[in-house]
Amino acid sequence: MAACSSGSVSDDSASKDKLSADRSEVEAYEQNDTTLSGEQNGKDFVNKLDNQALGEALRDGGHVVYLRHAKTVKDWGDQVSPALDLSDCNTQRRLSTEGKADAKQIGEGIKAAGIPVGDVISSDYCRAYNTADLAFGTYTKNSNLNFLPCVECTPEDYKEYAARVSPLLSAKPEAGKNTFLVGHDDPFQGVTMPVVPENGIYPAPMGVAYVAKPLGDGKFELIAKILPDQWESLAQN
User: Fold this and answer.
1) Other CB atoms closer than 10 Å to residue 83's CB: what's the count?
2) Category of 61 on φ-ψ map: left (φ > 0), alpha (ψ -120 to 50) or beta
3) Peptide bond into 56 cis (omega under 30)
4) 4 occurs within a structural domain
5) What is the pTM of this model?
6) What is the pLDDT of residues 93-106, one digit of tens each?
7) Does residue 16 lie within any of the structural domains?
């Protein structure tokens, strides 16, 4: 499998230099060695397929796509807020106008690329299922995609994320379809720690997607990274 060339969906003009806090897209309140290292791993990630091959692979189905929710009005740790009520969007971070536009763009790009959509599974947080609704018009909720009540997550927290999310990332979709998981940053970093040493991938920016090949039994292979405005580039020429 070929690595992507310049201009492909994996090209984010990232440097191999260590990511500094002032250049990070991780909010200051959650910046630490683990999240910054995970963000750098994401910037260093190279797609295993070029655009044409990736588009063809997704059109054939059989993949699980983990999509971090689109941009929010303000980034803050609502998962540790005493006022958090998952049934009340007013107690949570909400999608911004730009985030809503990004979610629609993702859905339009997937449709334009002819990528078949199977199950769409979201966390219980409003920003996740609103992203799913705007992009796909359908979703079911699964609390295994939710946050744990931590901002400074411990190694045990990340292991718990892996235990919760790996069954979803490793489950093979309906034949000819792709499963889309719409979730958050920390759960994805936790589930990728066993496959991207040593701190997994912190998915940045909001709206980024990672394509996985499910292998069953909690195992998966990461294939590609796709930004919100890059889906349409997978359309057939």
Assistant:
1) 9
2) left
3) no
4) no
5) 0.92
6) 999 999 999 999 99
7) no
The per-residue pLDDT for range 111-131, each reduced to its tens digit, is: 999 999 999 999 999 999 999
Pairing mode of beta strands 117-122, 178-183: parallel
Q: What are 45-76's pLDDT values in tens digits?
A: 999 999 999 999 999 999 999 999 999 998 88
Q: How far apart are CA 115 and CA 209, in angstroms?
A: 14
Residue ranges making up the domain that contains 190: 50-234
Average pLDDT over residues 192-219: 97
Per the domain annotation, does 42 fall within a domain? Answer: no
Q: C-alpha distances in angstroms, 171 versus 90, 101, 220?
A: 33, 30, 9
Tell me which amino acid residue 155 is.
P
One-letter-per-residue 3-state SS of the chain: CCCCCCCCCCCCCCCCCCCCHHHCCCCHHHCCHHHHHHHHHHHHCCCCCCHHHHHHHHHHCCCEEEEECCCECCCCCHHHCCCCCCCCHHHCCCECHHHHHHHHHHHHHHHHCCCCEEEEEECCCHHHHHHHHHHHCCCEECHHHCCCCCCCCCHHHHHHHHHHHHHHHHCCCCCCCEEEEEECHHHHHHHHCCCCCCCCCCCCCCCCEEEEEEEECCEEEEEEEECHHHHHHHCCC
Structural domains in the chain (count): 1
